[in-house]
Predict the structure.
Amino acid sequence: MTTYRSLSSDFVVAPQITTADVAAIKDAGFKTIICTRPDAEDPGQPSAESIGEAARAAGLSFISIPVNAGQAPSSDAVIEMQEALNTLPGPVFAYCRSGNRAGQLWTLATQS
């Protein structure tokens, strides 16, 4: 499984994953996977749909909240993340190209 960075006791961020990583993510105790990367940013990048199918087949929740590289997350993306954090089971494994956008979106969604 790819390396990840904990932002809280129940939220981590990581670089791009593959469908083969999903079993290890589940085995590590995560209950939800969140993709914050738009499809087709890089050649050969797995689609959010393919990761989502693998996650659901493994019994995990999955949601895609794409954030474009080099742009601040939109207010809609922040609201979607807040809703996901409030309704989907944790702990949560979130990913994008490097993990930075996923972390930025989490930070914005959890600010008081």
Notes: The CA atoms of residues 1 and 28 lie 9 Å apart. The mean pLDDT is 95.
